[in-house]
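Hmm, what's this shape?
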Amino acid sequence: MASRHVSHESASTFMKRCFASPSRMRLLCSKKAGREGGECLAVSVEIAPAGPVVEVQETSMAEGWTGCRFSPSALWLALKVAEPRSLIAECSAQAGSLKAIEFGCGVGLAGLAAHALGYDTTLTDCLPGHLKNLAAHTAKLRTKFPKSAPLRVRFLDWISDVGAHLSCSVDLGSPENVASSASSDWECLEKEQLNSFDLALASDVVYEEHHAVLLPKVMQRWLKPGGCWAVSLAIRDADMSCRFLEQLDAHGLVPSTAEHMIIETACRSDRCSYCSVREAWPVDGPPLDRLRSIVRGVQVATWACCDLAWGARPHDIMGNGVLRRYRTRPEADNNDSWRKPKQKGGTAKEKAAPQPKDAAKAAETWLAGGPKGLGGLNGAAASPGIGLASSKAGPGTNAPTSPSSTAQDEDEDTDLAGFSGLADAANKVWDDLMARKGGIKGKQDMNSLFGLAELKDAVERSVKRVNMLQQQAESASSSLEEKQTALEELRRKIEAGASTANVRWKLGDMAVRRGKGFCELSMVQMDVQPPCFEVRMSTSGTIVSTEYEKLVPLSSQQQMAARSALKELEEAKKRVATTEDGLVQAQEELRQQHQSLTEQVEVKLKEPMAPPGLPDFGYLQKSNAQPTKADAAAYPEVKGMKEDLRKPAAGAAAREASKDQSRAESGTASAGNTLPRQ
């Protein structure tokens, strides 16, 4: 296994580079060493000029989550713990054995530094990957240093510990937020240890808002009055950091005056707004107001220094508090809004039912949005354990209503987006389409309607199949719960009448881990006092370390009964997995069929249709497309016609004859256009 040693001089030089370039604080301490040594790197750090040396075992990103490699914040805190003139060292000068605890320890650099200084140390975390790595590493340390102070690893989930009435939101997608003491196979922190620790440590553990709220509560719960605490943080958000400071003050962890304040910075005042403002602080001002004024406001954009230490004397409620900060970009927009269910915009009484003339518009609006507005599909696709509870409801209609029932119908929510089942939504769109069938003409349109009807029936059949598979999944889940209950009853029965006297353990033996479940021995360390066993939990498969006294041996008959119960439990788990896979596949088929139906219905709804009793729009368009012809004249042309009913005189007759001859020669007159003279 690759290893690396870091001397105190190298660690101090590295921290000075981090102080000079705050962007380096975002990277891991052993980034280059991690590339050279692979994912599992053993690092030994000399935390003081003359020792001691702290050994940590880093782990891979796949095994852990955050904290699988120690950060500059953890290194700075470890150096501060070992500093002889620090407030922590002043607290350590008290007589008697001192106890230390580290919250969210990761690889445990700060906690192991306190252990190297003689503290009875407890390392806590909630991620199984970190707990597994710490258990193996601490077992090696106990073997290597048998006379050292006690060192133990315990499970501690902040939400389960003090988050019963948490008011802020929690991202349930993060692995550390789904941990639970009830489902953990690791030893939990004993309640007898409440308010018993002299020193509380935490480094780089505030990433979300609920971390800033819960950490002060956790420290107050486990740290004894008069103890010291030290926290090294990377301030990523001004509001979240102010929330953390306010919670510290609310739980009595901030001194009321500046008498006990210790300020440490590592940059020049002309480069950092924090340092320039710090020089003008009044000596007797309240520290919380000063800290809040620095964390919040425009000064955040010009931060350059890295360290801010503050605290109180040992006889106050708490001791030394340390915050690490550096300049960061503004927090990006929250892209996890899809995790949280959106509230419906209006209720049935708030939204009016669409009128018949707006039915097509409502259907087109729903179809444009797709199935996202239907809670039945989204809920079923998200979790195999959730079915279409409303899939058997009757279809909606668009039948004409009488004036007396109009007021009652207006209070009903008939919007398509309000349906909770795909069958209801499909029937609603189908009824609206069939209400306009008066405009359907031709064999091709009728065939398309028949095809849509078959597709609608397929959607209804898929809904019935999903419901049937949902019932099967529920039945399999009930059977699994029964098997788990039977196994738990068997464990309690064996544990109640157990005897640990004169037990000879060997690898592969089954045992009962008190309060946890059945396990199988995978490794025995008899050279450590008390003996330490590594066991594999039978139900989860995880490997954990436990003490000799916490194992209960099984007789041959008890082992046979336990193996039979575990076999039945595994078969029940397989049935649950099979039914859930079938349910997910059926839900996906239902979604695809529904999408195809909505696309085809959308096309039909977009085609213009005439109301019942009127000509088809296509016929009117065809008639309007023909060119118009001018009508023939219904009367004769009389232009140039003359009529004289008087008898002409002799001279007039000669003149008229001359005019007639001139018209004949010019071709301007026509015999058909003149009337005979009298």
About this structure: The longest helix spans residues 443-496. The two ends are 140 Å apart (CA to CA). Confidence is low (pLDDT under 50) at residues 265-269, 294-420, 438-443.
